[in-house]
Amino acid sequence: MDDAPDAARPSTALTALGVRPGEVLLVHASLRAVGPVRGGAHGVLDAVRRAVGPTGTVVVPAFTPENSDTSPHYRERVRGLDAAARAAVRAAMPPFDPALTPAPSTGALAEAVRTAPGARRSTHPQTSFAALGPGAGALLAGHRADCHLGEESPLARLYEADARILLLGTGYATCTAFHLGEYRMPRPPRRAYRCVVAPRGVRQWWEYEDVALDDGDFAALGAAFEAAAAEEEVRTARLGAATCRLVGLRSAVDFATGWLTEHRRPPG
Question: CA-CA distances (angstroms) from residue 239 to 8, 29, 47?
C-alpha cells in the first residue's frame, strides 16, 4: 500500500546516492524489489525529477519485444504451441506506434515516464527510449531504425552527455548501457531481427540486421566493473528493501567494451 508507515522514501535515498540537480539520468527500476513506496511508480518518478530539478533529464528504456517474432519474449510466448497457434500470435501482433505502444516489459516506472505529460520517445520499433526534461529531444533524436543500442541510438547521446545510470532495485544484469560496449567491440557478431511496423498506416513485417545483443554475461560484467571502478563512479544506498546504485555511464561503457572484447569469443 502506498501509505504504509514503512514505505520507502526515495527522496532520502537519492540524496544519499548523490543525485545532482541538472544531471541526466538513465533509470532502471524494479519497484517490486524496492517494496512499498508512497505514490508507487509516480511517487518514485516525482522524487527523481525533484532530485535532478527543472534543468535535469530523466531517461528510461521503453522497449517493445512484444511486436517481434525474433525476440526471446516471442519464443517464450509460443513455446509448446503448434504452427497454427504460432501464426495466430504473429497475426495479432500490433505494429509499433511511438505515441501509443506500451512497454510493459520495462516496468512501472518506465511506463510512468512514457505516459507523463511532456514525455518524448525515440522511434525505434524495438528499443525505444522515453524521456522527461529539457534534454529529452536532443538525447532521443536520430534513433536509427536499424541501430538498437549503438552509435545512432540514445545510448551514444547519453554517453556524450556524461549521463549517470540510476539502478533502483535492479542489478547489472539489466544495465542497458553495457550494450553500447557490444557495439564498440571489434567486429561484433550480427544477426537478423524482424518486427511489425506500420509506415504510412500500413501494417507490415520489417526485417533488418544489427549487432547480436546478448545480456547473458552482464551480471558478471557488472561485478567486475564494480570491483574495478573508482569510488566516485559507483555509489550505493538503500531504498526500501533494495540496494540502489548511481553509476557513471561513460565509465561503465568503457569498461564493458574492454571486458566484453576480452571475455567473449570472437566470431569465426
Answer: 6, 11, 12
Q: What HEC string does 82-145 produce?
A: CHHHHHHHHHHCCCCCCCCCCCHHHCHHHHHHHCCCCCEECCCCCCCEEEECCCHHHHHCCCCC
Nearest to 234 by CA among 224, 242, 134: 224
Name the grid cell of 155: 545510448
Look up the pTM and report it.
0.93
Q: Tell me: pLDDT of 2 over 80.
A: no
Distance in angstroms between the alpha carbons of the first and the last residue of the chain? 53
Question: Do residues 157 and 150 lie in contact, with contact meaning Cβ atoms separated by under 8 Å?
Answer: no
DSSP letter at 67?
G
Which H or E element spans position 238? strand 234-239
- Find the helix or strand (DSSP H, E) in which 51 lies: helix 40-52
Cβ contact 225:259 at 8 Å: yes
How many other CB atoms sit within 10 Å of the CB of residue 224?
A: 17
Buried b (16+ CB within 10 A) or exposed e, 103-120: beebbbbbbbbbeeeebb
Alpha carbon of residue 230 to chain centroid: 24
Q: How far apart are CA 124 and CA 234, in angstroms?
A: 30
Instruction: Tell me the pLDDT tens digit for each residue of 83-135.
Output: 999 999 999 999 999 999 999 999 999 999 999 999 999 999 999 999 999 99
